[in-house]
Amino acid sequence: MELKDKLVSSFFAFEDHLEDASPIHDIRNEAIKTFEQKGFPTKKEEAWKYTSLNSVLKHDYSLFPKTENAIEYKDIKPYLIHDIDSYKIIFIDGKYSSHLSQTTHDGIDVCLMSAALAKPKYRLVIENYFNKAATKDSLPSLNTAFSSEGAYIHIPKNKLVEKPIQIVHFSTGNEAALMLQPRNLIVVDENSHVQIIERHQSLTDNPVLTNSVTEIFANKRAIADYYKIQNDNQNASLIDNTFIKQKQESHVSVHTFSFGGKLTRNNLNFYQNGERIDSTLKGITIIGDKQHVDHNTLVHHIEPNCESHQDYKGIFGDSATGVFNGQVVVEKEAQKTNAYQSNNNILVSDKATINSKPQLEIFADDVKCSHGCTIGQLDESAMFYMRSRGIPEKEARALLMYAFSNNVLNSVKIPEIKQRITKLIAKKLGVNIGFDL
Q1: Cα-to-chain-centroid distance, residue 7
Q2: In the chain, how long is the greatest CA-to-CA distance?
Q3: For residue 153, what are the CA distances in angstroms to 20, 112, 212?
Q4: Residue limits of the SUF system FeS cluster assembly SufBD N-terminal domain (predicted)?
Q5: CA angle 291, 169, 206 (to 5 degrees)
Q6: Domains in the chain: boundaries
Q7: Which terminus of the chain has a lower count of CB atoms within 10 Å, N or C?
Q8: What does the buried/exposed string (b/e) look like for 294-328 if buried means 16 or more CB atoms within 10 Å of the residue's CB?
Q9: Any idea of the CA torsion for 343, 349, 352, 358, to the nearest 10 degrees?
């Protein structure tokens, strides 16, 4: 049985076994119909022209793990930003791990989607926000149909969340092949500020396919900083769908660090609904072997006096493939928009490939918009200069590549994440850079 047919046939059994009152029952049913109609995306679709899912859809995935694998803190500590105090929402094979997590309802809600769907006190937020940003494309619809677990974060107005929130999904290899569909809902009310770190990590070499959806709502003057660390095993694939709706004077930044995994597709969509909004999208990709990373971004400027900043850096070795498809849409009413988009790439192998397509669609006349794309190799004159100063070739190449990506790190607001990413970059480049930020 093909995976699509298996998913559709499993949906009704899934709905029947849910324990919540299903405030999203109708939404789920509409979503599975959408997925059944559209199926998995193929390269015939323009947005998926350079990314094929065939290699990751061939496995016989388990959709609902029946047994739990016991995990201790020492097993997951290397994958956490453990040198900071933080709230933690930890999932093991798609199921919440209470003994590894630290949640709260003390003035803010940092808890589970299953709790939000089951308890009446969360009903108003669910009705107002759930599935209000996600598109009706096939993969977000598939996730919506099977939505039952993930992170639920609600920050009421005038709250500064004093410590970051980590959302981490682990797969243990308990199943020969596993498909996960986590759903996160994050609502940041007026004048509030939150920092969130997300990671998906496989602990074995068994195939894992994660189809994740995150909806983020930043209300008036809210600030949200979101960090995605993607450094998974070679048999793990991630399709990450993130949808962000912003209101007046809000600031949202998303930093995506893609260093590992078989296939990674990041669909990142910003919708600006108000004036004086700032949206930041930045990323670093360093991959090799036959890895594939695809960044597909959209910033939709709807009202005037707003800004957006996109800056993606890529370093590709061996037979790796990178894709960047960045779209900026400026509506007629969005006068005095300032939109910046940049995608710069280095190919360190003759077999590596990058497909870059920056796009601007501007319907307003009083705007400042720019986009650019570069694809090249390391600067030989800079290499010669460093070699002439006694720096070995391997270290010189690593320092140049680190400097190439460093401006993305400059906007990271959590020092411990800067340090972690610096070490990951050094490891990916195969050198000891010899300094921390």
Answers
A1: 23
A2: 70
A3: 19, 8, 16
A4: 15-167
A5: 50
A6: 1-217, 379-437
A7: N
A8: bbbbbbbbbbbbbbbbbbbbbbbbeebbbbbbbbb
A9: 10
Residue ranges of the alpha helices (H) in 82-183?
Answer: 113-118, 123-129, 138-145
Indicate the angle between helix axes 415-429 and 393-409, nearest 10 degrees.
150
Torsion, CA 249, CA 254, CA 255, CA 260, rounded to 10: 180
Helix (H) / strand (E) element for 3: namely helix 3-16
Listing DSSP states for 44-106 in one string gives TSGGGTT---HHHHSS--BSS--S-----HHHHGGGS-TTS--EEEEEETTEE-TTT-B-B-S
Cα 332 to Cα 41: distance, rounded to the nearest angstrom: 31
> What mean pLDDT is predicted for residues 324-339?
97
B/e letters for 67-79, b = 16+ CB within 10 Å, e = fewer, are eebebeeeebeeb
In this structure, the number of other CB atoms found within 10 A of the CB of residue 26 comes to 9
Element (H, E) at 10: helix 3-16
- Tens of pLDDT, residues 116-169: 998 999 999 999 999 999 999 999 999 999 998 999 999 999 999 999 999 999
For residue range 383-396, what is the model confidence (pLDDT) as tens digits?
A: 777 778 887 777 78
Band of pLDDT at residue 69, cut at 50, 70 and 90: confident
Token representation of residue 31: 């979503």
If we measure between CA atoms, which residue out of 228, 63, 48, 237 comes closest to residue 145? 63
d(CA 25, CA 367): 43
Q: Which amino acid is at 423?
A: K
Tokens linked to 188: 């940041």
C-alpha–C-alpha distance, residues 281 and 298, integer Å: 10
Give the tokens for residue 63.
């959709």
Q: What is the chain's percent helix, strand, coil content, to nearest 5?
A: 25, 40, 35
In one letter, which amino acid is 124?
A: L
Q: What angle do CA 68, 144, 9 make, to 5 degrees?
A: 70
